[in-house]
Amino acid sequence: MTAQTTITDPQTHAVNLRVRSETRALIDQAAKAQGKTRSEFMIDAARRAAEESLLDQTLVRVDQQTYDHFLAVLDQPPSGGGFERLMAAPKPWQN
C-alpha cells in the first residue's frame, strides 16, 4: 500500500502538479486558514471549479409559456423587504 492509497477510498489516484514557490505558499496559507491540508484545499478548489465549469454549460429547455414568464419576471424591477434592507445597508466601500 502506497502513501497515495487510503483504506477508506481505495480508488484514490495521485495527481502531480508543478507550481511556483509563491503560488504554493499562497495555497498553503489559504489551506491553513481553512484548517485543511494542501491536498484537501486543492482538491476542494478543483472540484468546485470543475462543477462550475460543467454547470455553465448546462442547457435548460422550457416551453414558450414558461420562457415568457421567466422573461417577464426578469423585467420586473426589484422590490420587497429584502431588497429594501439590502439597499439601505451600509456599503463597505463608502466608509
From TrEMBL:
SUPFAM superfamilies: Ribbon-helix-helix (SSF47598). The keyword Zinc does not apply. Keywords: DNA-binding, Repressor, Toxin-antitoxin system, Transcription, Transcription regulation. It holds the Pfam family TacA1. It comes from the Bacteria. Belongs to the TacA antitoxin family. The lineage of its organism: Bacteria, Pseudomonadati, Pseudomonadota, Gammaproteobacteria, Methylococcales. This is DUF1778 domain-containing protein. The keyword Transcription regulation applies. Coiled coil: none annotated.
